[in-house]
Amino acid sequence: MSELITVIPYAGYRGDEAPRSFILGGVRIDVASVLESRVEEAVETRVRLRLFVVKGSDGRTHTLACDEERGMWFHRSP
User: Fold this and answer.
1) Which helix (H) or strand (E) holds 2?
2) DSSP secondary structure code for residue 77 in this structure
3) What are the residues whose beta carbons fall under 8 Å from the beta carbon of 47, sequence distance 6 or more?
4) Which pTM was predicted?
5) Over the stretch 4-38, which tens digit does the pLDDT of each residue have?
6) How far apart are CA 62 and CA 76, in angstroms?
7) Which pLDDT belongs to residue 45?
8) Are strands 17-24 and 2-11 parallel, antiparallel or unpaired?
9) Whole-angstrom Cα distance, residue 78 to residue 73?
10) What pLDDT, on the 0 to 100 scale, is given for residue 12?
């Protein structure tokens, strides 16, 4: 299950975006650390997602996915 979210990103010198904070359920959560980042591409739909597993300021681990083509971010529930 995925929920559309708002992400406040940081763009590095190469232009790659990484989440710095996000709004989930009306609450702003800062990214304390990025635990993992990877790219997934669904062959059948050709949708490419950049995934970030992050530790939030709420103490929880979150998986955030960015659909680069549409410029949309999603929170993936476990």
Assistant:
1) strand 2-11
2) P
3) 41, 67, 69
4) 0.85
5) 999 998 866 655 678 999 999 999 999 999 999 99
6) 7
7) 79
8) antiparallel
9) 16
10) 65
The CB density around residue 7, as the number of other CB atoms within 10 Å, is 20
Both structure tokens of 16: 């790659």
CA distance 55 to 32: 6
Find out whether 75 and 3 touch, Cβ atoms under 8 Å: yes
Q: Cα separation of 17 and 11, whole Å?
A: 4
| DSSP states of 29-57 | EEEEEEEEEEEEEETTTTEEEEEEEEEET
Q: Which residue has the tokens 């979210």?
A: 5
Q: For the residues 62-71, what does the mean pLDDT come to?
A: 91
Block residue for tokens 């990025």: 34
Q: Which of 12, 14, 30, 10 has the alpha carbon at shortest distance from 22?
A: 30
Contact 75, 60 (CB under 8 A): no
